[in-house]
From TrEMBL, chain A:
Transmembrane recorded as keyword: yes
UniProt xrefs under PROSITE patterns: TONB_DEPENDENT_REC_3 (PS52016)
UniProt subcellular location: Cell outer membrane
Similarity section: Belongs to the TonB-dependent receptor family.
Domain annotation TonB-dependent receptor plug: ranges: 118-224
Superkingdom per UniProt: Bacteria
UniProt main location, coarse: membrane
The protein, known as: SusC/RagA family TonB-linked outer membrane protein
Membrane topology: Multi-pass membrane protein
Cellular component GO terms, alphabetical: cell outer membrane
Keywords tagged on the record: Cell outer membrane, Membrane, Signal, Transmembrane, Transmembrane beta strand, Transport
Signal peptide: 1-24
InterPro entries referenced in this protein's UniProt entry, alphabetically: Beta-barrel_TonB_sf, CarboxyPept-like_regulatory, Plug_dom, Plug_dom_sf, TonB-dep_OMP_SusC/RagA, TonB-dep_OMP_SusC/RagA_CS, TonB-dep_rcpt-like
TrEMBL record, chain B:
Name of this chain's protein: RagB/SusD family nutrient uptake outer membrane protein
All copies of domain SusD-like N-terminal, residue ranges: 90-209
GO cellular component, one term: cell outer membrane
UniProt entry keywords in alphabetical sequence: Cell outer membrane, Membrane, Signal
Signal sequence, start to end: 1-21
Alphabetized Gene3D superfamilies for the sequence: 1.25.40.390
Domain RagB/SusD: 374-518
Primary localisation category: membrane
Family: Belongs to the SusD family.
Origin superkingdom: Bacteria
Compartmental location: Cell outer membrane
């Protein structure tokens, strides 16, 4: 009876309030102390999730009533709370504080909450950090910005997707380990973002713990990266903004101490390598002076100083019921390897509208992006006629580019005379005749509709699509050495092309109903959602040999020779394919808050995946998280030390359905036997074969995360930061279980075993100086992650494939190096020596002598630090990233120190110190050592790849608005920046950073210097 | 409240029907053998795919590196050296030890599935003339599967059995049952006797189903062709088996049962390994070849060459000097065609090779491998000569040696040598061995096989089977071929003459026992 009465009473009061305090529009401008407007500041109605951002003139508009409190937050400024009066105008002046990491709100796809009410581990990066950087993909820009987020770029190819993003350690062995990307509410089909314009991004929220990710169900297991693009605000006048950067990239240096031509010829003489001359096969060829050779400078032949430019022009404006942000972008980014690069064109328009009474809101985000990439094929391979990096780095220094005269004959002559040593000349021929191009069109469209039924209930729906087409065209010209060398003896027409078209469409829909209610100091939110995802993939390809050189053009398929009766050399081969994927989910979330002091959030989600059957089809994931805003407690009132203090804790589960790591479409039907038809033996065009063994009980990998975090600000916000500790355990890992060969396979993948990541993350920022003219802020973040495999599917307690450099053992980390321990050179005979399993020295180690080295290619410690200085409009910013306890196998160094390389490829001067009877105390073995092949299975080439890198440094000037009046500009900012300028590392190679455990002749990331300008009209 | 529930229900309905999101039919996926194997024609398509399981190129590659057949080539930049395969490096992770075991059991697994399906089809075939014809065709297919299964067991037996002549010694797994996805079934290694009688039984079953083997030869398309297994192959399997178990009568019986084949002539031997593959289907020496077509990919000569087999291409490996000297010594005037077939025309043997420096030896003493010369269309690829009559005929010599008839051995070797020399050239120049003891007979057979079957993947098993009896020291390379790496020899008694049970089997199968030494 009593509770019923309360209900009625509350309802009455709710109505009363609406009648009694009519809302009206309040506008205002948020400014700095200098009077400059602050665009992008967040204005929140205290006690609610309602809020808006200021437009580019610092203006905001909200429907408020007298007595409402608004809280204005902007990165770098002290949050300010004001009370609404009758006037309808409420201007706000923010005091600079240079907080970059504490943002006012936290955004994910399903909810937006104010920072104090957030209970989860979420990091936010805003456009301030992303805009105007010369990186082709925003992923690279995120490097070092988020504690616990390990981003390693494996390629200097502009826009390459060979970047590994790992949040809080590897959460899977064979499944997907990278986070889910959601752009404007649309989940992405891949992590390739070369076509997107980073300057359009407003903010990126990185969701880390189960409380934040469980709501993403079976896709959120490795964290979620939520990207929100820029929007305009209602009632704002037209803003036009131009951001442009121009830069130049250079190859990084190496510490291999490679030989020059003179050193090399002297060296190879010692090995009795004869002085070969091209004139032995071609009398007109250039000769090599073996007494005083000229350096070939192969790095200069293949690399260049690469120019990059980016332009973005954006327009934003809003009327009473409609606002729009539109941008166009153009980028032309050259790679440091000649012939490589990325060009792209972007268009985006984001539209939001509402009804007069604000009950109905809708929005669309539309972007269309087109990019063309010229890529380097075979990077990292040991194909000496294909990998440019091998030719550039390992080319014999006494060979010269003029030995290649533009014909395949001269390349072939070089091969005949110099054998494998001819590789740089073969690669000059490849550069002339060969290419790999990709054209990508990507459009992301999202539409949303929300309707507030009354003050408590609202319903909404979201429809999104990610559509992407890629055309890949590879060619090898008919006059190329490779087409000549590998053709059939009687094949008249040479050259080949390959053309692949792929089309991906992912459609999602999400419908929800939400409820919220406030009872005095209690407030409750709840929502129920259903989500539907369907994805389609189609591909077709054609490849063909035989083109007429008279008609041939590089990059085209001209000069096509038709098939003939005599042979099948010129018959094209083609394929067509199709795949589908889908998912259905329903879920709910509820949150409770008491006076912004205590909060509790619960999520529950059920998912069905197309990858599993029977009782494993549906997965259930959940989370609970809570917070305690200690700062709002009575006993903290008047605290002179703390200006903010909040304790968070969460626990929950998430699933990984992409257990094979093959993307949206891969690994369908793994639960069943499959048969296939295809080309058979002895010209049989159609033979039948068993192609897959079934694993009926496949299921999700499940990740359980516990997180405890503390957000704090001390000394009037001068020192700010947060600290998180977590334990993340993955169960039901998808990994190969060995099979007896009678099953027709030696292993089958199934769910077995667990692994665990435990770690600490810390983010700190402190203002050293903070006054009107000068602010100096130091910031740092770092993380420690311990990765541990708990159990493995065979009795040995470890898995190792019998030849790999790394394996896994229970208690060790994923990808742990498993090698012989090198024990130096035997001074007596120059053989290499190793420690056996008992620690004794042996020259002939066996598998049993391999040791777990507790080293892997993923860092244990990583993070960044930097500073931010502002002085009367001048600003300087620097960011250093670091990774520690990271080891990689230096295969480049292996080739630079192999006796079999003498006379074949360039070597390091280090190798001058090899064992002879007169040099017994040598760094390298007897070149004729019988057991040399063990060396590449030892830790000799395993090198410490820890580094500290000056990731970027920016200096610039922000013109005051008053100084710009005469140009009719409302903002002007100029700056210069440098990326990857200096790296301190023991790693000898070109690039200490890599996402691979073993590196050989890869495309190194460049260093870049660029200049930028930002103009607001 | 009710309205809200209705609204939500409406939204739910909007989300189309949800099941299509997770119950997705991928196009073209077939999950049951009853969906595709429904006639003898379908079964033939299944059998066809099995031929690609035979690791023929892998065997030739492995044997050439691991024995004394190869020397380091002019253009070698570490290939085969850095990874240890030239250096007699062998452990349970060695590639060929795994690929042979796995491929052969895979072949048997699929054979057993097809045999099972054939039995199902025969059971429902019904009666009438068409049904009878279909049943016959199915039975012939079943017979072929039994022969393939016997072949797989014979190859496994040869590589993984430590002692062929000890009936109770451990051999390989006897895999005679239908097996699909019970992954916890763990088999033991059977004994030598069990495997031998299983192979005999399989061959007998094949003969019983095909009118004594007559219908084994007729393929689905009605063409008899040495591309596929047939009656002669069935007999050859037994001959190869009995050579190992020293069942001389078995060898003699089966060699007599082989029809239409002989050791050929110098001319037929030359065409057997010619660049233009002409008439291989009727070559008298060729009992079973694996046909290789340009689109098949791979290539046997790729084990030693890049690009093509030619002096101006990239030779990673060349003929080992110790083998070359044997071939070179066949007769003084090089009229034994095994020289011109094995040694590529543009080779440059240096008479004073022993006094050359290590680098000069490598760069100037050029002994290019020409046995598998590639074809015009695919320059590293040839049909694989899997079983030759000469191989079986020399097994007959082994049978005679077992019986103590060393003069008979001498005669067979004379026959072979004559058949490799063009009589017109000068028969008087052919060098014939004189054999005066059984040990010398074994030695003569081993030596003859070394030059006859160079680069055909035979040397390893020849040494394993004959080495001790012949008093051979094992694999011995010329000193010049191991000057830079010290990998000069492997003794005939080495445990490495039996392959290790591969790692994957040892890990998965608790009933498996490793061979000694590993």
């Amino acid at each position: 009876m009593r509770s019923k009465f309360t209900w009625i009473l509350t309802l009455f009061f709710a109505l009363m309030m609406q009648v009694g305090f009519a809302q009206k529009q309040v506008t205002g401008v948020v400014k700095t102390q200098d009077g400059d407007p602050i665009p992008g500041a967040t204005v929140m109605l205290v006690g609610t999730n309602l809020g808006t951002d200021t437009d580019d003139e610092g203006k905001y508009t909200l429907n408020l009533k007298k007595g409402d409190k608004i809280r204005v937050v902007f990165g770098g400024f002290k949050p300010t709370t004001l009370t609404v009066s009758d006037s309808g105008v409420l201007n706000v002046t923010l005091v600079e504080e240079d907080i970059t990491e504490l943002e006012g709100i936290v955004v994910d796809t399903y909810r937006t909450v104010s920072k104090p009410k957030n209970s989860n581990a979420v990091s936010t990066v805003t456009s301030k950090t992303i805009e105007g950087r010369p990186n082709a993909s925003f992923i690279q820009t995120l490097q070092g910005q988020v504690p616990g987020l390990n981003i390693s770029t494996g390629s200097g190819q502009p826009g390459d997707n060979n970047t590994t993003v790992i949040l809080r350690g590897l959460g899977s062995i064979n499944g997907n380990v990278e986070p889910l990307y959601v752009i404007d509410g649309v989940p992405m089909s891949s992590d390739r973002f070369r076509s997107l314009n980073p300057n359009d991004i407003d903010r990126i929220d990185v969701l880390k713990d189960a409380g934040a990710t469980a709501i993403y169900g079976n896709r959120g297991a490795n964290g979620v990266i939520v990207v929100t693009t820029k929007r305009a605000s209602f009632d704002s006048s037209l803003e036009v903004k131009y951001v442009g950067t121009t830069g130049m990239s250079f190859l990084q240096d190496n510490q291999y101490n490679l030989m020059n031509a003179k050193q090399y010829v002297d060296f190879q003489r010692k090995f009795g390598i004869p002085n070969r001359q091209l004139t032995s096969v071609d009398p007109n060829a250039p000769t090599i002076n073996y007494t005083n050779p000229v350096d070939g400078n192969w790095v200069d032949v293949f690399f260049r100083n690469a120019i990059a430019q980016n332009h973005t022009l954006s327009f934003s404006s809003g009327s009473k019921n409609l606002n729009n942000y539109t941008s166009i972008g153009y980028s032309d980014i050259e790679g440091v390897l000649k012939t490589t690069g990325l060009k792209r064109f972007n268009f985006r328009t984001n539209l939001n509208g509402k009804s007069d009474n604000g009950k109905l809101t809708y929005g669309t985000t539309v972007s269309a992006n087109f990019s063309k990439s010229d890529m380097a094929s075979s990077a990292g391979s040991n194909a000496l006629n294909q990998n440019y990096f091998m030719g550039a780095f390992q080319g014999l220094p006494y060979l010269r580019p003029d030995m290649y005269n533009g014909t395949f004959d001269s390349a072939f002559n070089a091969l005949r005379v110099f054998s494998n040593g001819s590789m740089p000349i073969l690669l000059m021929d490849k550069m002339r005749t060969n290419g790999l191009k990709q054209e990508e069109f990507k459009t992301i469209v999202n539409g949303s509709l929300n309707y507030a039924i009354d003050s408590n209930w609202s319903i909404g729906t979201n429809l999104g699509a990610d559509y992407q087409t890629i055309n890949q065209f590879s060619f090898n010209g008919p006059s190329s050495f490779n087409s000549f060398y590998f053709a059939a003896a009687d094949q008249e027409w040479l050259g080949s092309i390959g053309n692949i078209d792929e089309r991906r469409l992912i459609m999602t829909s999400n419908s929800n109903i939400k409820w919220n209610k406030t009872f005095g100091k209690h407030s409750v939110n709840a929502g129920a959602y259903i989500e539907y995802l369907k994805a389609h993939f189609k591909s077709s390809s054609i490849s063909k040999e035989g083109f007429d050189p008279n008609f041939w053009e590089n990059g085209k398929a001209t000069g096509w020779i038709g098939d003939s009766d005599q042979n099948d050399y010129y018959a094209p081969s083609a394929s067509v394919g199709e795949q589908s994927a889908g998912m259905f989910s329903y879920f709910g979330l509820a949150s409770y808050d008491y006076d912004t002091k205590y909060g509790l959030d619960v999520t529950l989600r059920r998912d069905a995946s197309f990858r599993f059957i029977d009782e494993n089809r549906w997965g259930t994931f959940w989370s609970v998280s809570g917070r305690w805003n200690i700062i709002n407690e009575k006993f903290m009132e008047g605290s002179t030390v703390f200006s903010d203090l909040k304790l968070r804790a969460s626990h929950g589960t998430a699933g990984n359905q992409d257990i094979t790591g093959s993307g949206v479409f891969g690994s369908a039907y793994l639960y069943t036997t499959l048969y296939s038809a295809g080309r058979g033996y002895a010209d049989e065009p159609n033979a039948y074969a068993l192609s897959q063994l079934p694993k009926r009980d496949l299921r999700w990998e499940e990740i359980t995360t516990t997180n405890i975090g503390l957000d704090f600000a001390l000394f009037n916000n001068r020192l700010r930061g947060n600290v998180d500790v977590y334990r993340k355990q993955t169960d039901d890992l998808y990994q190969p279980i060995p099979l007896s060969a009678i099953n027709g396979s030696t292993s089958i993948f199934g769910n077995f075993g667990s692994l665990r990541n435990e770690g600490v993350e810390l983010l700190l920022a402190g203002d050293i100086v903070r006054n009107k003219d000068l602010t100096i802020t130091l910031n740092a973040n770092g993380s420690y992650n311990k990765n541990q495999v708990l159990n493995l599917p065979n009795g040995e307690g470890f898995t190792w494939n019998g030849s790999s450099l790394s394996g896994m053992r229970e208690g060790g980390r994923i990808g742990e190096f498993y090698l012989y321990k090198y024990a130096g050179i035997n001074p007596q005979n120059g053989e290499t020596q190793y420690y056996d399993k008992n620690g004794a020295i042996t020259e002939n180690p066996t598998d049993e002598d391999r040791q777990w080295l507790n080293k892997s290619s993923l860092p244990v410690y990583q993070g960044s630090f930097g500073f931010d200085v502002n002085y009367k409009g001048f600003f300087a910013q620097a960011n250093f990233t670091f990774a520690k306890d990271i080891w990689r196998f230096d295969n480049d160094y292996f080739f630079f120190t192999q006796p079999s390389s003498v006379g074949m490829s360039n070597m390091t001067n280090d190798y001058q110190d090899y064992w002879t009877t007169s040099n017994r105390d040598a760094a390298f073995s007897n070149p004729n050592a019988n057991n040399l092949y063990h060396l590449s299975d030892s830790d000799f080439y395993l090198r410490d790849a820890s580094y500290i890198r000056m990731r970027f440094v920016t200096v610039g000037y922000n013109f005051k608005k008053s100084d710009l009046a005469f140009m009719k500009l409302s903002g002007l900012r100029v700056y210069a920046q440098a990326e990857n300028l200096v790296t301190w590392t023991k790693w000898k190679g070109w690039d200490a950073e890599s996402n691979r455990g073993v590196d050989l002749s890869q495309y190194p990331t460049p260093r870049t210097v660029s200049f930028g300008v930002e103009v607001q009209f | 409240m009710r309205n809200k529930i209705l609204t939500f229900a409406a939204l739910l309905a909007l989300t189309v029907s949800c099941q299509d999101a997770y119950e997705i039919e991928q196009p073209g996926f077939r999950t049951e053998d009853s969906q595709i194997f429904n006639s003898s024609t379908d079964i033939a398509r299944g059998i066809n795919a099995l031929y690609n399981q035979i690791p023929a190129e892998g065997e030739i590659n492995f044997v050439s590196y691991f024995t004394d057949e190869l020397g380091v080539g002019r253009d070698n930049a570490g290939q085969g050296i850095n990874d240890g395969s030239y250096r007699f490096f062998m452990n349970p992770g060695t590639g060929f030890a795994g690929s042979l075991w796995n491929n052969m059991y895979n072949l048997v697994n699929r054979s057993n599935r097809l045999i099972h399906r054939i039995d199902e089809l025969i059971a429902v075939a019904g009666t009438g003339t068409e049904a009878v014809a279909e049943i016959n065709a199915l039975n012939y297919a079943k017979a072929r599967l039994h022969v393939l299964r016997a072949y797989a067991h014979m190859k496994l037996f040869s590589y993984y059995t430590t002692d062929y002549k000890n009936g109770s010694a451990l051999s390989v797994i006897k895999f005679d049952f239908y097996h699909t996805d019970d992954y916890t079934r763990y088999e033991k290694r059977s004994t030598v006797n069990e495997i031998v009688s299983f192979i005999e039984k399989d061959i007998q079953t094949a003969f019983d189903l095909t009118n004594g083997g007559v219908n084994l030869d007729t393929q689905a398309d009605g063409v008899s062709n040495n591309n596929f297994i047939g009656k002669n192959v069935a007999h050859a399997i037994l001959i190869k088996l009995y050579a190992m178990t020293e069942n001389s009568q078995g060898i003699l019986d089966n060699i007599d049962a082989i029809t239409d084949k002989n050791i050929g002539t110098a001319g037929s031997f030359t065409t057997l390994f010619a660049k233009e593959e002409v008439g291989l289907e009727s070559n008298p020496d060729l009992v079973w070849r694996l046909i290789r077509l340009p689109n098949d990919g791979g290539g046997v000569a790729g084990a030693w060459w890049a690009g093509a087999v030619a002096a101006n291409r990239t030779a990673y490996m060349e003929i080992g000097r110790s083998l070359f000297n044997e071939i070179n010594n066949l007769n003084p005037n090089k009229l034994d065609y095994r020289y011109s077939v094995t040694v590529l025309g543009d080779s440059q043997p240096q008479a004073n090779y022993q006094s050359l420096s290590a680098n000069d030896y490598r760069e100037r003493d050029l002994l290019f491998i020409g046995k598998y010369p590639g074809t015009t269309e695919a320059q590293l690829q040839n049909d694989i000569k899997l079983i030759r009559y000469t191989d079986l005929y020399l097994a007959k010599a082994e049978a005679l040696a077992m019986n103590g008839d060393y003069k008979g051995v001498e005669n067979i070797i004379k026959e072979v040598r004559t058949a490799r020399t063009l009589v017109l050239d000068d028969p008087g120049v052919v060098v014939f061995p004189t054999i005066s003891s059984v040990r010398e007979a074994w030695d003569a057979i081993l030596k003859e096989r070394r030059v006859e079957f160079a680069f055909e993947g035979a040397r390893y098993l020849d040494m394993k089977r004959l080495g001790v009896k012949a008093g051979s020291p094992g694999f011995v390379r010329d000193a010049k071929d191991c000057e830079l790496n010290d990998a000069c020899s492997l003794p005939v008694t080495s445990f490495k003459l039996t392959l290790p049970i591969p790692r994957s089997e040892m890990l998965s199968n608790p009933n498996m026992v490793q061979n000694p030494g590993y």
